[in-house]
Amino acid sequence: MHHLRGLLLLICLAGGVSVSDSFSAEPSKKVLIIGIDGCRFDAIQSADTPQLDQLIADGCYDPDCHIVGERYQGNDTISGPGWSSILTGVWADKHGVNDNTFKGKNYEKYPHVFQRLKESLPDAYAASVVTWVPIQTYIVSAADEGLSYAPENKEYAAADAVASLAAQRIVTQQNPTILFYYIGQVDEAGHSKGFHPSVQEYVAAIEQADKHVGEVVTAMRSRLDYANEQWLIIITSDHGGRGLGHSGGHQVPEILNSFLVVSGTAAMRGRIEKETYLTDVVPTALTHLDVNVKAEWALDGQAVGLRSGL
Ligand SMILES: [Zn+2]
Fold first, then answer.
1. How far is the CA of 82 from the centre of ligand 1 (A)?
2. Could you tell me if residue 3 is inside a domain?
3. From ligand 1's centre to the CA of 290, what distance in Å?
4. Do 147 and 130 contact (CB within 8 A), yes or no?
5. Which of 131, 164, 250, 283 has its Cβ near the most Cβ atoms within 10 Å?
6. Is residue 117 part of a domain?
7. CA neighbours closer than 13 Å in the CB half-sphere of residue 185
8. Residue 1: its pLDDT value, please?
9. How far is the CA of 118 from the centre of ligand 1 (A)?
10. What range does the domain containing 105 cover?
11. What is the tens place of the pLDDT at every residue in 75-107?
């Protein structure tokens, strides 16, 4: 820091060049979206999650992000519609996915965020790493790398670990504009042992997910050009859970509410005051990347938690 100040002083004295002229280059804006399937925020709070805690402290959060909108609640409260809403920015009456059969999908008209990004920034590098294969099979489009690691015998922990390595490789060796990284083992633990902050296996899965979040975020921060980049990190889940499930949860707050974290130097601080929705993820990411969100895209969400966007 002192060295930099000295250099600035030298530049000013030597050339009469103002500091703002010399350092007007905008940081390169980038987005990391982390999706943790079936993760309840109250269970994060009762778990030991230093990585998530720090990301929340370095940004803003909503502990009650709605997984269905006000206009339409016809879809089931499960992964197919949830991740479709998160990754397209529209509700299920538009993207057409009401359950995990993906019957009726309309991603041609309401595509994945990568496709919207590339309409505006064709040279953007977009990558997705998942362990729930239907995301890659059905939802992802316009990816430079779209990787999915199917768990063997529904053992997501091992698949998530491999996916973390892939995400770390991409974020360090490529130059991604946007990276989506998905973690599956929390939902698996919920289905087998219970979705609740008092269930040890569920909490342990969240703690393992937190480690993977830390691995990918640490890799991101180790990028050679990190000092000239402005990363926005968005973290959410597709639904909560109660008992051993989450289907048909339209009247169940523990299922109906997810959470949303928006973190980084571009994010606001503290609890987000307004209501938030899964469909806010795409407009938030695109707004950070300076993409003009077109009215004709008919996105249902809004940018939330950005210093400049409010
Ligand atoms: Zn799910």
1. 7
2. no
3. 30
4. yes
5. 131
6. yes
7. 25
8. 44
9. 27
10. 26-297
11. 999 999 999 999 999 999 999 999 999 999 999
Using the mean position of ligand 1's atoms as its centre, give its distance from the Cα of residue 53 in Å.
22
Pull the structure tokens for residue 81. Answer: 């519609």
State in Å: Cα 243 to ligand 1 middle.
Answer: 14
**24 Cα–ligand 1 center, Å:** 43
CATH of the domain at 159: 3.40.720.10
Expressed in angstroms and rounded, the spacing between residue 83 Cα and the centre of ligand 1 is 8
Q: How far is the CA of 208 from the centre of ligand 1 (A)?
A: 17
Calculate how far, in angstroms, residue 225's C-alpha sits from the geometric centre of ligand 1.
Answer: 34
> To which residue do tokens 């979040």 refer?
213
Confidence of residue 18 (pLDDT cuts 50, 70, 90): very low
Q: What is the pLDDT of residue 23?
A: 52
Find the 35 Cα to ligand 1 centroid distance in Å: 10
Task: State phi, psi for 188 to the nearest 5 degrees.
Answer: -60, -45
Percent of the chain at pLDDT exceeding 70: 92
pLDDT at residue 49 greater than cutoff 60: yes
Q: 204 lies in a domain? A: yes
| 123 CA from centroid of ligand 1 (Å) | 31
User: What is the average per-residue pLDDT within 284-299?
Assistant: 97
Residue 307 belongs to a domain: no
Write out the H or E segment, with its range, that includes residue 220.
helix 200-221
Burial (0-12, 13-18, 19+ Cβ within 10 Å), 5: exposed
Compute, in angstroms, the gap from residue 39 CA to the centroid of ligand 1: 8
What's the CA-to-centroid distance between 38 and ligand 1, angstroms? 5
Residue 274 Cα, ligand 1 centroid: separation in angstroms? 24
Residue 299 has pLDDT above 60, yes or no: yes
Using alpha carbons, select from 190, 188, 168, 187 the residue that is nearest to residue 179. 168
Distance 21 CA to ligand 1 centre (A): 49
| Average confidence (pLDDT) over 269-297 | 97
* The total number of structural domains that make up the chain: 1
